[in-house]
Amino acid sequence: MRILHLVSIATMTDPADPALKIAEMQRKILGHDAEIAYDTRREGDMPRRTRELGVPARGDLGLTTKGGVRQALADRRLLVQAFADYDVIHAHATHDHGLAALARSKGARAKLIRSIHHPRSAQRRLFQSTVFARTDAFTVVAEAHRQLVLASYPSTRPERVFVVPGAVDP
Q1: Per-residue pLDDT at 128
Q2: pLDDT in the model for residue 39
Q3: pLDDT tens across 64-118, in order?
Q4: How far apart, in whole angstroms, are the C-alpha atoms of residue 160 and residue 165?
């Protein structure tokens, strides 16, 4: 299975650490062809950590919240092709989730999954209903977050929201 993880962060904070760990486990334990794309426009430790963990990184996506419309359109264009090349696109942050949802066309090969690592990402926001509607499934770290997703986005089917308890790697 080909999996592309998206995280619009340049440092090993917030959802970047779990995204990279999931990709590493998918490669080493499950034998999947998992890759990661992260914010390549800002300084951070993601390039070093991806090399250390043996997870291939896509350098062609900018995935930065500081890149403006031109960068977002360039990323969207690349993500349109990614939906044909991968089986799963797994978004870990709001920015990359929005880009992926907008890049996804009807009949796309890849499924779009969103992991919600923090409850603020489950709260209702303007335009997010469209993004959530274009997403095949969600993972959340707690039942309370699942309930928040379902309350915030009533059109989201409950069987598409899975609780995967979080863990901290000391």
Answers
A1: 86
A2: 96
A3: 999 999 999 999 999 999 999 999 999 999 999 999 999 998 889 999 999 998 8
A4: 16
Please report which confidence band the pLDDT of residue 61 belongs to, taking 50, 70 and 90 as the band edges: very high
Name the CA dihedral angle for 60, 61, 64, 70, rounded to a multiple of 10 degrees. 90
Q: And the tokens for 9? A: 């962060």
Which tokens hold the place of 23? 């990709």
Question: How big is the chain, counted in residues?
Answer: 170
Statement: the pTM of the whole predicted model exceeds 0.90: yes
Burial of residue 114 (number of CB atoms within 10 Å: 0-12, 13-18, 19+): buried
| DSSP, residue by residue, 90-141 | EE-SHHHHHHHHHH--TT-SSEEEEEE-SGGGGS--TTHHHHHHT-SEEEES
Nearest to 82 by CA among 50, 111, 56, 51: 111
CB hemisphere CA count around 41 (13 angstroms): 13
| Nearest in space to 99 (alpha carbons), one of 59, 54, 67 | 67
Confidence category of residue 165, pLDDT binned at 50, 70, 90? confident
Residue type, 119: P
